[in-house]
Amino acid sequence: MPEYPALAVGKSGVPGRFNGFFNGKILVVARQYFHGLFSVIGKTDKKWQFIIVIKDINNEPELRAFIEYMRSRVSWECRSYDNSFNISFSIGISRYPDNGTDWKLLTDKLIKATDIAVKKGGNRYIIYKEAIHGELR
Q1: Helical H runs in 1-102?
Q2: Closest by CA position to 67, among listed 3, 115, 7, 4
Q3: What is the bridge-based pairing of β-strands 38-43 and 88-96?
């Protein structure tokens, strides 16, 4: 069965005056370059996190390649607007059905994965795995 990874995308290293631009740019780039791959785009309770549900990613190498492409595309688009942008991403990933079938549980796991990425210094992604990161209750 195909996985449907859910990503929580956080930001850091963006000057406060550019927050609105950056937040909008993520969604514009996502819609422009990844049209058809998303079934849902939303936000978590943390204002700096986006939730993106991706379809047709069936294995971890495809997922990693997609994440790297998305990060570089958004970074390039923002730097084309203003070369002073120093953009970094902290991304948490939970996978359906591997991490659960309940939307709340999947969201909690991707938020935890994002928090781990931030605590490790940011500008990285964490794919949530119970064996490594523990089970949420």
Answers
A1: 19-33, 60-81
A2: 7
A3: unpaired
